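Lab notebook: predicted structure, single chain.

Context: the supervisor wants predicted structures on file for every construct in the current expression panel, including those that have not yet been purified. This is the next one on the list. No modifications to the sequence; it matches the entry in the shared construct table.
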Amino acid sequence: MQILGLCFSNSAIGVNAQHDGALVILSYLTAVVASFTALDMVERLRTAAASARRFWHLGAALVLGGGVWSMHFIAMLAYRTPFMAQYDPGLTIISGVIAVAGVAAGLQVLAKQATPMRIFGGGALVGLGVCVMHYMGMSAMRTPGEIYYRPLWFAASILIALAASTAALWLAVTLRTAGQRAVAAMVMAVAICGMHFSAMAGTVIVVAPGLAQVDGGTPLVSGSLLSATIFACMALILGIALMCAYLDRRLEARSLAEAEHLRALNEDLEASVQSRTIDLTTALAALDEQRRRAESANRAKSDFLANMSHELRTPLNAVIGFAEVLRMRRGDDALSARQDEAVGQIHTAGRHLLALIEEVLDFAKIESGKVSISIEAIDPQEVAQGLYGSFKLAADRAGVSLDIVASDEEIAVRADHLRLKQVLSNLISNAIKYNRPNGSVRVEVSAVADRVMLSVTDTGLGIPAHRMNDLFEPFDRLGREGLGVEGAGLGLALTRRLVEAMGGELRVESREDVGSRFIVDLPAEAPDLVELRPAPAVARAPAGPEPGPQAKVLYIEDNASNIRLMRHIAEALGTLDLHVAEHPVEGLSLAARLRPDVILLDINLPGMDGFQVKARLEANPLTRQIPVIAISANVLAETMSRGQSSGFRGYLTKPISIEALVLAIHEAIEPPLALDGKITA
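Prediction complete. Output recorded below exactly as produced.
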């Protein structure tokens, strides 16, 4: 029976054949070396980088395929027959290529994932390649007869090849150490040799009668040439094995060196990170401590400002208030000219002291970042013109001419209206105070690109060049303390900080004995964004406030000096029915019993502050509708803002202005009607 060119027979009788033991052992050792080298290369293939996998893949295929091919033909040299066998070179080479290709295909199946199905599939491809290589090599052998195969031994050889190949791939993906691979290589070599010699056990060579020599029509390879070829193939396998071992040691040494380098770098990095962490932790702790100290200092400053404001304004309330009461006397109680002059000096000094206190408090607020700035579109010419009436009298008294130069074009700036007015007031006031007789002060407003320049020019003493750097230092009056000009040296420092808070810049040009020019540089704004402001109220004559309203007034206050002052004010006005409560609880009781027209409520009260008293008044139906006016020496922005949002009809600050008090009572009792009919406070 003939299948695929192979003849099968169970009855054919062939020549006697034997095997050379030395060559059999050599074939086994060849299989061991090839198996061990291939297993090691497959292990490298699985762990290598993507760029190196092709090298290890090709090497493993050449080593294992070439090793099996070499083992086969060494074993064929060990096969002794009565005649000399020769080999077809083409089929011999093709058999080797088939062995290498079969191993390469099997390894490719395992390249992505070593699942059981892939191991069986790859083993089938390798086993099929080995079987085809074996029987292709047998077909390459030329003998003076026919070659027959026993079917059972043929089937056994194929099964052994498939099982051996599958086991080889399984071992390749499971073994890790060199010792394990050495044992596995010896087992694989037994399986490979078992496949070969099982196939040879079922091989029968029948010599044809009359044939003594092999047909010489085709060039054949003799046994000696085949031995040389096998030696060359073994040298190639050993060369690849040595090269792999060398590369492996180089790569391992490089990996160890890199690992050691990385370990050293990691240790240095960890040490650096630990050191930086300690430094950062220490720095953060220090920053946190500084922050807590700053917050504590800020709270202490706020408390100090509040307490200082209260403590200074309370006695000033009596000084300025009693001075105003004295100047209100008429008829037989009117002051003499000398008395009126003395009281006027007291009133002026009190107002000056109040201005200094407010200046210091403003500067402290700016330094602590608590100054309130409300940026909007403002007409700077309107602000400058509005100050003319305020400073004209002072300029006339100093013998200085004051000019506000108006521009023909519409100009607007981005600034805070109140702070801009304060800035110009300080600059104009200084220009008048530090001027010379018959001097002049000129205020100009001009637009330059997207900026607006407000300049105040005087013909005063000027500033020495060597003192220009000290010009904006707080409390430094540049040696002008002996000129008899009032001030604490805070005006310019405060002015500069206010300008910077509004996003502007304050510059100065000065020549000693010639004069100075201060320039406020602010960002420009579109003139059509300026909102119309109500015309300023006409200043009242200094004769005193308008007559007080007929009203029953309850005054809740614990300070005896303030109470006496309020009694004098009520007496001087002659229209107020004043009742006093010196304690909050007493005040709440009197308010419910008397039902006054208006309540004057001090904020800083013992046991219950003014805000709590206001809440209690609103909670009682009997007192809910009574208008309440707050009176406080606390001028901090947060306190005043709280007062405005707590429902007070007014918030008066100490020292109390009698005129402002009368106006507040008038508005509380008879609130003006707005255009929409709603009552406005």
